[in-house]
Design brief:
Blueprint (H helix, E strand, L loop, with lengths): L3 H35 L6 E7 L2 E6 L6 E10 L5 E7 L4 E4 L8 E9 L4 E3 L4 E3 L9 E8 L2 E7 L7 E8 L6 E6 L5 E4 L7 E11 L2 E3 L9 E4 L6 E9 L2 E7 L6 E8 L6 E7 L4 E5 L6 E9 L11 E4 L7 E8 L3 E7 L7 E7 L7 E7 L4 E4 L7 E10 L4 E2 L6 E4 L7 E9 L2 E7 L7 E8 L6 E6 L5 E4 L8 E8 L4 E4 L3 E3 L8 E7 L5 E6 L7 E7 L4 E8 L4 E4 L7 E10 L2 E2 L6 E4 L16 H9 L18 H11 L20 H10 L18 H14 L26 H9 L6 E3 L2 E3 L8 H17 L2
């Protein structure tokens, strides 16, 4: 009998054993956790369940320093035990000791070259009776790019399914799809034509738990995809009893079957079996002007194609168009022309093929008797191909196609400025500008009347710029154009001109006068009563070019773009519609050289203005110094504005501070007369007082208004863009806003803010720039 003390000792002894076992388990688990953390490379583990008693475990060998792999297993959540030792590089084990109804958990551990052992994979848990293998698989060929699959599971069970595929001649399987439980069909559309494919299916429950494959792991169930169906089937009648068929050859076929159905027959019948690579067939039919339907199928030893699209052909003969020609016009469109050789067609079909297309497609249609077409929907530098056929609408009647013709949309610079001079009542001279260095020649085309066809009257060598037509008629409207062509298929056309023998009289007595270094004034006599305007032409070296136009009865023109110090030759033509008169007399004129001031280096922004105004004798200084940064007086500024805008006027008068002896007396009197400046209550002008930016801007705005070219009005609120807008007087604000809005005067940026500085004095350079901008505005808005 055990005493109480003994019982107590026995109890403590039992507890201490349990505690020791628990401590050891915790220590072992901590070592596993620590060693797991020590592994830097891990693998997934996959379970392939063959049946309820056999499962294969697989993992990846990512290591280079392993000594052994250990596969451990736990049953129903119990303690892991080792079921397999695997040498280095071995990554699979088949466990044949499993039983249905139990949960098996597997993991792999590894011992590396330092004899450290750690967990190498995650754990995976399976029940072999919960994964069911498919028990049937049927592949069915649908087309050249589709095979349908159907499978079942035993006893009507359902499962997620993996579909795998390989091609004939390959041993490598690839997964093509995964479908959810309950779906037992799949359409494989990622296949090539005419190939034998093998399939197998397996179920899966999680990413790495799968059944074995049906029908097996190696061969699978097979199906052969169809060949692609023959395409571009076309046909036409060679006569009332012969029909020509054409189609595009496919690959891998060994034969073609031609089938036909007459309009009074219900089913297709086989009419010919043709060898591989055949692309045409002539069928002898029994009835003229009848409709026949055709279809084609390709064959090999193991499969065939789908039927081609059905083609209906009438045994009615149409002669095909001929001499199809495609040319690129200006690089922006392609012009087609052909010969219409039939008399009973109702229209034509235009077929086109772009570089990105493998086949011709019907592009457009034209009506009866058409023999030309313009394709406007083209891209630059692209080669397009065309063919044309005749048709009879609603009767399935087509001719053979014309020859094929292509054109590259390469731009060819067109002849420019086509015009004519009437030499006599029977001869006209055509002239144009040669704008291209790529032409191979020119074609002169002519037509009578707006609706008639152009026809060629001459072909000329490259670089030609004139042609004389000595066969003209005064009774019919006559039109001309010039066509340039290159050595490929590109053409371009000049403008069209209409010949008129009723040319206006030529202007006469042309005279010129130099206004400035850039401006030349031309005047002439108007000798015609029928002109619609005048063309002003200038020549610097060899060729005259148009520099301007004016309306009828105008006899003056100012050319503003003359080059300082250069000689130009000028002439005038009267114009009526497209008809130009003979030229006026020619006048050779040289503009003056820019005045040279030696002190403009610091005001490069004003050099053009100063030189231009100096050539107009706006400034009085004859020295080589302009003093551009010197502040300017009201009187001198008045003189610059009046002279620049041509507002000189002889006006008598005097003010307290302006007498006839004042340097700028005439200009001040003119300015006061026009209201550009005004006297104060003391009858003073203050001509010698320095002018401010505000005063200068207001005077210029008033002068432009007097000249008939007022500045566009701007709301004075626009002046709020300037930091010092409050310093602008209310009486000046609208004029200041207009001058700023026209870009004649602008602000100055100081410390990140823009100031107008209306009370600052104006320098001579600034005065010249203001006057010059006002002059340019006045000339451009007259």
């Amino acid at each position: 009998m055990i005493s109480n003390r003994g019982k107590k000792y026995h109890k403590f002894k039992h507890i201490s054993k349990l505690a020791i076992m628990l401590a050891v388990a915790i220590l072992m688990q901590s070592l596993v956790v620590l060693n797991t953390a020590a592994g830097t490379v891990k693998s997934n583990i996959t379970a392939l369940i063959h049946n309820i008693n056999v499962v294969t475990l697989t993992w990846n060998d990512y290591l280079t320093n392993e000594i052994n792999y250990y596969l451990e297993r736990s049953v129903d959540g119990g303690i892991f035990s080792i079921v397999s030792y695997s040498a280095a590089n071995l990554t699979t084990f088949t466990d044949s000791s499993v039983q249905p109804g139990h949960i098996y958990t597997y993991r792999v551990k590894v011992m590396d070259s330092t004899y450290t052992t750690y967990v190498y994979t995650d754990e995976i848990s399976i029940r072999t009776d919960e994964i069911v293998k498919p028990d049937s698989l049927t592949p069915t060929t649908v087309s050249s790019n589709q095979i349908d699959l159907k499978w079942t599971y035993p006893d009507g069970k359902i499962s997620n399914t993996i579909i795998e595929r390989r091609m004939e001649g390959s041993t490598s399987w690839s997964e093509v799809a995964r479908v959810a439980a309950g779906q037992n069909t799949y359409s494989d559309k990622a296949i090539a034509a005419g190939i034998k494919y093998y399939y197998k299916v397996r179920s899966y429950s999680m990413e790495y738990i799968k059944s074995s494959a049906y029908p097996d792991e190696y061969d699978g169930s097979s199906a052969v995809s169809m060949l692609p169906k023959p395409s571009n089937l076309s046909g036409f009648a060679l006569s009332g009893y012969k029909i020509q068929l054409k189609w595009q050859d496919i690959s891998f076929e060994t034969a073609y079957i031609i089938e036909r159905r007459a309009s009074n027959e219900g089913a297709f019948i086989e009419v010919a079996v043709l060898p591989q690579n055949t692309t045409s067939y002539i069928d002898n039919v029994t009835h003229e002007n009848s409709i026949y339907s055709y279809r084609i199928k390709a064959l090999t030893g193991v499969t065939g194609s789908e039927y081609s699209d059905v083609l209906n052909v009438a045994s009615t003969y149409l002669k095909p168009p001929s001499w199809l020609t495609a040319v690129s016009v200006d690089g922006k469109k392609i012009s087609l022309s052909w010969q219409d050789l039939t008399i009973n067609e109702t229209g034509f079909e235009i077929w086109r093929k772009a570089p990105t297309e493998t086949d011709y497609t019907l592009y457009d249609t034209m009506g009866r008797n058409a023999n030309s077409y313009i394709d406007l929907n083209v891209s630059p530098q692209t080669n397009y191909s065309y063919k044309v056929r005749a048709k009879i609408n609603d009767n399935e009647v087509y001719s053979d196609f014309s020859n094929e013709s292509g054109a590259l949309t390469t731009p060819l610079s067109p002849p420019a400025n086509l015009s004519f001079n009437v030499i006599s009542k029977t001869e006209v001279e055509l002239t144009w500008d040669d704008t291209s260095s790529m032409e191979a020649g020119y074609i002169v085309e002519k037509k009578f009347g707006l609706l008639s066809q152009w026809y060629q009257i001459s072909q000329l060598e490259p670089n030609t710029t004139k042609y004389n037509d000595k066969w003209i008629s005064s009774t019919e409207p006559t039109f001309y154009r010039i066509k340039a062509f290159d050595r490929s298929t590109a053409v371009s056309y000049s403008n069209e001109v209409q010949l008129s023998l009723d040319a206006p009289e030529a202007p006469g007595n042309l005279q010129t006068s130099v206004i400035s270094t850039n401006d030349v004034k031309l005047t002439w006599n108007d000798n015609s009563s029928t002109e619609e305007g005048f063309i002003i032409e200038a020549k610097q070296l060899y060729l005259f070019r148009e520099i301007g136009r004016v309306d009828s009865n105008v006899t003056t023109f100012i050319y503003h773009d003359a080059i300082p110090g250069k000689t130009m030759t000028y002439r005038i033509r009267a114009v009526k519609g497209l008809v130009q008169s003979n030229p006026s007399n020619e006048v050779v004129t040289a503009t003056s050289v820019n005045n040279t001031y030696s002190d403009l280096g610091s005001v490069s922004w004003a050099v053009e203005a100063i030189n231009n105004l100096a050539s107009r004798n706006v400034f009085e200084s004859n020295s080589n110094r302009f003093n551009p940064k010197q502040s300017i007086s009201r009187g001198e500024y008045c003189a610059i504005i009046v002279r620049s805008l041509g507002m000189e006027k002889a006006v008598a008068g005097r003010f307290v501070d302006v007498t006839a002896k004042h340097k700028y007396y005439k200009e001040i009197m003119a300015a006061e007369y026009f209201g550009i400046i005004s006297k104060d209550k003391n009858n003073k002008i203050y001509p010698d007082k320095l002018i401010t930016r505000e005063q200068a801007a207001v005077m210029l705005a008033l002068a432009l208004k007097i000249k008939g070219t007022p500045l566009p009005q701007k709301d004075s609120s626009t002046l709020k863009q300037f930091a010092d807008f409050n310093s602008i007087s209310d009486s000046s604000s609208r004029n200041i806003a207009a001058v700023c809005g026209a870009g004649i005067i602008s602000g100055r940026k100081i410390n990140g803010r823009v100031y107008l500085q209306p009370s600052n004095n104006v320098t001579r350079a600034e005065a010249a720039l203001l006057a010059y901008k006002g002059l340019i505005y006045n000339q451009g808005n007259q």
